[in-house]
Design brief:
Shape: extended
Number of helices: 4
Order of helices and strands: HEHEEHEEH
Structural class: alpha+beta
Strand content: 5-15%
Mean pLDDT: 84
Helix content: 10-25%
Low-confidence stretches: 181-204
Number of strands: 5
Radius of gyration: 25 Å
Length: 208
Amino acid sequence: MKLDDPNLKRVEPPKLTLFEKTYLPQILGGLAVTGRHILGAAVGGKAITVQYPEEQHVPSANYRGVHRLNKDEQGRVKCVACMLCATACPAHCIDIVGATAPPEWDDREKYPESFVIDELRCIYCGMCEEACPVDAIELTGLYDLTGLSREEMIYDKTKLLSVFDMTKDAEPMQSGNPPATLALPTSPLEPGGPGPRSSSSADMPSRS
């Protein structure tokens, strides 16, 4: 569009009155909001804060928190190592090493031998979740995970699967949880091979 285009509409900034130039209306408006919250807490019984950590904050339904790797009906990781999530990730925080699936896994050709997400580098945009064709990766409502070092905030496959165990009841998979009566494997089929590993308390993410 050119500067002399007749369809160009110029918007002039509003002119402030002498009273508005004193900023008193804005100051009084801010004080009114503060007073309304004080009266609401003192008289109306409306809580502004929660007694954390005894009272947990409940995030909105569309909140995007820590990732999890979902399991299928046989307790295996659902990921098929197609790399679409790592490709779609704008922050490049997902690193996957794929391997040929065991012969008894006849529903896929590959599985993630290693699946690592840098939770500090992630921008929680949800692109990985949108790109996954098998609903293997999802973002949960967990928001208060902490770590004492950067290494603790790099989640490997074991941690990501443990997040699934922590959140599967409160936040079912979009495609439905595996049957609760199904015995899930707790040890790998072979050292370094497929299947969720047993999680020690040190490996489990904490919520404090």
